[in-house]
Amino acid sequence: MTKKALHVALMAATLAALTAGSPPAHAIEKPDKDTLVVATMWECLPFSMEARRSRFFNESEILDTLVKLDYGMNLVPGLATAWQRHGPTEWTFTLRQGVTFHDGQPLDAEAVKFSLERVAALLPYAGSLLDLAEVTVTAPDAVKIRTNQPYAALPNQLTDAITGIYARSSFDAEGKFVKPVGTGPFRYASYTKQDRTVVERFDGYWGKAPSLKRVVYRYVPDHSARVLSLETGEIDLAVDIPPADVKRLSAAGSGFQVYREPSAGLYYMVLNTAEGRPFADVRARRAVNALIDRQAIVEHALDGVGKPAWQFFAPGFDWVPAGLPAYALDPAAAASTLAAAGFSKEGGAWTKDGKPFAVEILSYSSRTEMPLITEAVSGLLKAAGLETSTKMFTWPGMLSLVQKGQYDAYVVFWTPEMTAHPDLHLLPHFHSAHGMDYNGYRNAELDELLIRGRGLNAGPERQATYGKALTLIHEDAPIVPLVHKIYAAAANASVKGFRVHPSGFFYDFKSVRKD
Amino acid sequence: MKKAMLRRLGQSLALLVLLSMFSFALMHVMPGDFAELLLIERMGGDLPARDVLARFKAEQGFNDPVARQYLRWLGGILQGEPGVSFQSGDGVWAEIGLRVENTLILAAASIGVSLVLAVPIGVVAAARQGSAWDRLSMLLAVMGMAIPNFWYSLIMVMVFSLFLGWLPVSGYGHWTHIVLPALVIGTSTAGVTARFIRSCVLDVLSRDFIRTAHSKGLGEIRVLFGHALPNALVPVVTLLGLQIGKMFDGVVVVETIFAWPGIGRLLVESIFGRDFPVLQLCVLVVGAVYIAVNLAVDLLVMAIDPRIRGAL
To answer: What is the pTM of this model?
Structure first.
């Protein structure tokens, strides 16, 4: 009996050793009042010169761009105080006076020319992104920019994070990148690979100085771990939090604040319009648009975090003309459209010439919400009498099938309003020469409108041109808009003054303070 | 003996060369055009026009015969320049070096935890079949296999970070960061290892020399740990070798939750991101680790068991 007791004691000791071999309390580092710790889903890479990843320089406001977007997605002065278009392809930008870089050097036109030419050189194959032909210094505080084609979206494109302005000291004598030195409210302090990037307040900032001394961007790739870090107090703010946690943290008395703001981003389904595919007939495309209950997708696939999308752009932009048609849920209209297209419903299933209306939907699983949305779309269409199936790939895996045209439909995510100009995504996705969606869609009238729109300044003519273009896209229905993205972030109660930027691409912590 | 070892080494090298060909071939087998994906990255995510893609392919040598591309890649690796990661823009060696280092740290810590638990539990379970220790080893083994690591990890985080406030949720660089991932992996493999040790020790316990040891009047502890365990070690060392190999590609979920920069996560990230320069070298490194661990296990087993020495 005593022997048994001894064994039990030994076992208990083993278990105790296992759990008590842990460090003492207070092993968790808690940020001080002047430091904001943010957990991000993607690693913030301050040394990456790869175009896409170098966005962080600007997003974290180490670098400024010439033009900026305010919270209403309107163009506002950044490092340029004024800009003017002198002809179809010629622009001048007047620079802000009295701006200094983090190294103490003044901002001048030479630095702007150097930075923009550098971006152009980094993107030798991406002509349409900036379309720069030449940057000329005309005065210490003025540059002239010439584009290859008439391009009214240039100021909008100059809000993009990749066009931030560097000081020369960002590079060594051989032109090799050393560290990001810019004019922003925060300056680069340190970087630990796979762990964190730290920026510090720059006291010589040209705008209103931030109240925070330091912002730490910690890389926490797992969604649940990000939220748990917020709950333990290790971090102050978690971005991209899962919908289920949005619900939980929003509950009264949770002690956390949850931000849910509309942000550039659309989930949509591309329909293959090629001959022989089920969506070759425009009536089938329109019917599908009227059959999918977007509200149901938002509620059941995204836990309510999203906004039903009935058109390509989120409403509210001045270039989305009032009265523009949008799709609406209308099963009755869909049924008569399908009947007109030669389909008939037998035993609850749509058929044509004895064959079922079968649709295979592709998507990719690297974005966690894609499988959920795709399954929801498939389920809703199945309930409406279509024979649907889904297939999940990695992004490149799906893309290789799509490019070969081996699909009926696929679900994707893009950010059509990112720089607040319709051209950025209308042209590549819907112009037949660009055909980024690989769905065989072409409309000569639309092509002409999209090219014309690109050269037009804001005003009634541009309004009318894009209004007509969006109407044509609505009628031809090459896509099914599904959900406008809602950007979700959460912070502890001490964080004050944070706002989600509607472009979804900026960490604006200038006006944030901690109590 | 020396000859046998040299032959074994030669085999390993030949295997490595085959592996390098295989990891290079991945680029051509996986769906998606390698050159196009590279160009998409360079262009900041935009899809290139067809004529631009053709120009890019010609300029970058993607139209060369595959054999020449392979030799160029291999040359790059041998000269220490295997390219740059699409994802981070850093050199591939820098990317992988960090991961290998951290994987080794995690492997050592978790296998340490696993052995501290498994050896006493396994040996005592063998000596006392059907006892509480035996049942504990069974419980650990079943739990280790049945509980998915993503759930177990989050439960551990909730207990040790959220409720007790002892350990940070995720990260690396401080010793406190290793505790939770090592506990998760260590305890979830301890059961299986304990059961394995138990059956090996049981096997040995029925041998004549154990009876002899008992009849010499040796105490039970001395018999179990001094005679039975060392003789049961050969298969256990082989199992540990397999577990070390698994640490290089099989603990991705744990690495992701704890933001531990291990090589398994890099492998998965590079597959999803089609980060070919990293992916190819990752496959090569993970393969090399398996080969090296197998070699080391063989050598170690020879050192432990004199009977095997001539067998290689």
So the answer is: 0.84
